[in-house]
Design a protein that fits this description.
It is a single chain. Helix 1 (about 20-25) packs parallel to helix 5 (about 165-190) and helix 4 (about 125-130) packs antiparallel against helix 6. The chain has helices at about 20-25, 55-60, 75-80, 125-130, 165-190, 225-230, 295-300; strands at about 5-10, 30-35, 40-45, 50, 65, 90, 110-115, 120, 135-145, 155-160, 205, 240-245, 245-255, 270-275, 280-285. The protein is built from seven helices and 15 strands. It has a seven-stranded mixed β-sheet. The protein has two domains: about 5-205, Formyl transferase, N-terminal domain (Rossmann fold), CATH 3.40.50; about 210-305, Methionyl-tRNA Fmet Formyltransferase, Chain A, domain 2. Helices cover about 25% and strands about 25% of the residues. It is an alpha/beta fold and about 300 residues long.
Length: about 300
C-alpha cells in the first residue's frame, strides 16, 4: 500500500463505470495505479477504431497505466495486472470474466452490478428490470467470486422505477447511484469495518446478452409488455417490425385498449394490432435509413401501409 491507501486497479469498459472511475481517482483511501479496459474497436459508419468510454475518461484524467488486453485470462495479461501489486480491484461493466488469480488480492475484487442481486444476474440487468415491469431496481456492490454475479453482498442502493424509463436514461441514473455507493463503502471495506453477506438463494434470475432478433415485436404478446420492450431495448437491439415497405423501428409507443384496433399483426392508422383486441400505438418510428418521425407522418407518406400485415 501507498501511505495507507489501497493500491487499486479499476476494470471496466462501458459507461456505467465512468463516474465510479472519476470518484476513485480522488478517493482518499485509494491509490489508483491502473485501469484495465477493452481494446479499441471499429465503430460508426467509417469503422474507425474507437476507445472504450472508460479508456477515454482514463485519458482525460491523465492516468498513466491503461491496459487493453484482448483476453484478461491470458497469462501475460494476468501478469501485467499483478505486476502493479494491487491491493484491490474494482470492476464495473467490463464484459470479460475476471480470472481467479486476480480475485485473490488482499482486499479482493469488488463488482458494481446494476441490479438488486440476486435478481437480474448476468449481462443485461438494466433492460431486464424494465422488461419485467419491476417497481424498483438499484446497484449492488459485491465481492467477486468465481461465479456469475454470485459473490457476497457488501452494500446495495435502490432506485424506484416509474414505468417510463428507457435503458439509456436508467443507465445514466444508475451510473451515479453506483459511484455514490462505491464512494461511501470502499473506505469502510478497506478498513475492515464492513462484512459481506451471502446472497439469498430465493429470487434468483439470470439475464443473457441480447441478440438482434430479440427486438422483433411479437403481435401475440400483450401491449403493455411490448411497450416495456420498446423502452428496454434502446439503443440496441431496438424494437422493430418488418412491413411490406421495409423495417420500421419503434422508438416510443403506448398500450391502447381501443376496441377498434386491428387484429394482431395488422398495421392501422395508430399502430399495430396486438394481444387480444389491443393495439400498440406507435408514437415515434424510424424507417430503415431514415429519420425519426411520428406514426402519422410515416403513414401520410406511405398510405398503403394501413391494413397491411407485418412480415415474420
Amino acid at each position: 500500500m501507498t501511505a495507507g491507501r489501497a493500491r487499486t486497479v479499476f476494470v471496466g469498459s462501458g459507461r456505467f463505470g465512468l463516474e465510479s472511475l472519476r470518484r476513485l481517482r480522488d478517493h482518499g483511501d485509494v491509490d489508483l495505479v491502473g485501469v484495465v479496459t477493452a481494446p479499441s474497436r471499429p465503430a460508426g459508419r467509417g469503422r474507425r477504431l474507437a476507445r472504450s468510454p472508460i479508456h477515454q475518461v482514463a485519458d482525460e484524467l491523465g492516468l498513466d497505466v491503461i491496459m487493453t488486453p484482448g483476453r484478461l485470462r491470458a497469462p501475460d495479461s494476468i501478469g501485467e495486472v499483478l505486476a502493479l501489486e494491487p491491493d484491490l480491484l474494482v470492476l464495473a461493466d467490463y464484459g470479460q470474466i475476471v480470472p481467479s488469480a486476480l480475485l485473490d488480492v488482499p482486499y479482493g475484487a469488488l463488482n458494481l452490478h446494476p441490479s438488486l442481486l440476486p435478481r437480474h444476474r448476468g449481462a443485461t440487468p438494466i433492460p431486464a428490470a424494465i422488461l419485467a415491469g419491476d417497481v424498483e431496481t438499484g446497484v449492488t456492490l459485491l465481492q467477486m467470486d468465481s461465479g456469475l454475479d454470485t459473490g457476497p453482498i457488501i452494500a446495495q442502493a435502490t432506485r424506484p422505477l416509474l414505468g417510463s424509463e428507457t435503458t439509456p436514461l436508467l443507465g445514466a441514473d444508475l451510473e451515479v447511484v453506483a459511484a455514490d455507493l462505491l464512494e461511501g463503502n470502499i473506505g469502510p471495506w478497506i478498513r475492515g469495518e464492513l462484512a459481506a453477506r451471502p446472497q439469498a438463494t430465493a429470487g434468483v434470475t439470470l439475464t443473457r446478452p441480447l441478440r438482434r432478433d430479440d427486438g422483433r415485436l411479437d403481435p401475440g404478446r400483450p401491449a403493455v409488455e411490448l411497450e416495456r420492450q420498446v423502452r428496454a431495448y434502446q439503443p440496441w437491439p431496438g424494437s422493430f417490425v418488418d412491413s411490406p415497405v421495409g423495417r420500421i423501428i419503434v422508438w416510443a409507443a403506448t398500450p391502447d385498449a381501443d376496441p377498434s384496433a386491428s387484429r394482431p399483426g395488422v398495421l392501422d392508422e395508430r399502430g399495430l394490432g396486438v394481444g387480444r383486441g389491443e393495439r400498440l400505438a406507435f408514437d415515434q418510428v424510424q424507417p430503415a435509413g431514415g429519420t425519426r418521425m411520428s406514426w402519422a407522418a410515416f403513414t401520410r407518406g406511405r398510405p398503403s401501409i394501413i391494413g397491411a400485415s407485418i412480415v415474420g
